[in-house]
Every structure is written in structure tokens, then in C-alpha cells.
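Table S2 (continued). Query chain:
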Amino acid sequence: MPHARRPMLAAALLCLAVACEPDPCSDYVDYMCDCHDGEPGVDCEALENTYADAGPDLQDECVIALEDQQDEDAQNGVECDSDVATE
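Corresponding output:
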């Protein structure tokens, strides 16, 4: 393969890899709606609206919120059939 094409191929593969990464805010919303829908303070529509198209700062918050909620659920013996992987 010519050297000029290698950077383009690498960039294309990187773009595919980044696009396929999970969205932490979607994971958080999915987990909350799968496991806690109907509980006080959990409004799935509001969560979806709040975290739609979340930027990097908000995604960092979602990672922390999901981990905290999963830890709290584990401590309280809450089991959930969510597709979101638990830590």
C-alpha cells in the first residue's frame, strides 16, 4: 500500500472506532429507565431530553452518575435486567 494512503486509512479507522463508542449518557438514561422508571425523581422523558446530544462535559457526568447508581443498587441489593453493563 502506498505511504500516502496509510494515514487516510488510519484516519478512517479511527473515525469508525470513535463513532462506535458507546454514549455514556445514553447508557445512564437506559439504565435509569430500565431499572428505576416510576420511582420518585426518575422521569425518563426528562432524562432523555436532558442528555440528548450531550457534550463531553456532560458525558463525564453521566459516567459518574451511572457508576454511582450502579454502586448504590449493588449495595441495596437492587437487581436490574438492563442491557447496560454493570461495573
